[in-house]
Amino acid sequence: MKIYVASSWRNALQPGIVQVLRRCGHEVYDFRAPAPGVTGFSWSEIDPNWRHWTPRLYREALEHPVAQRGHKHDIEALKSCDACVLVLPSGHSSSWELGYAMASGKRAAVVMLEPMEPELMYRGAEILASMDDVFDAFGEPKLGESAA
Fold it and tell me: Measured between alpha carbons, how far is 11 from 90 in angstroms, rounded to an integer?
């Protein structure tokens, strides 16, 4: 199964979930390394002062080649996946990605390993509240296989 893992750069669980799903035998998209030799998108590649942009500067930055490349990697992977797994806590983009996947009829799951603010729009997604839930949903890791 092709799985798109959506989360935040600040989420320390995200790399582990990517690795576990790969060990379960799935093809997993990792926004931190979207293609061989390619690092994930960062606003700081466009402007180190990005946190202080006005709405107009933000709108202009969306047209920057770096933003276009990052969006292309992510949206192509999202369109071609069979399932989207949102790892909480996350940000705006990852919630949008889960919603896009759900609206496209793809399987959706939310990994919520600690209490979080409830979100009504996660209704319809599988809520995975433990690693056992993750394994029940996506299979057990295969011993001796690398997490490529």
Answer: 7
pLDDT in tens, 74-105: 999 999 999 999 999 998 999 999 999 999 99
The answer to whether the CB of 8 falls within 8 A of the CB of 14 is yes
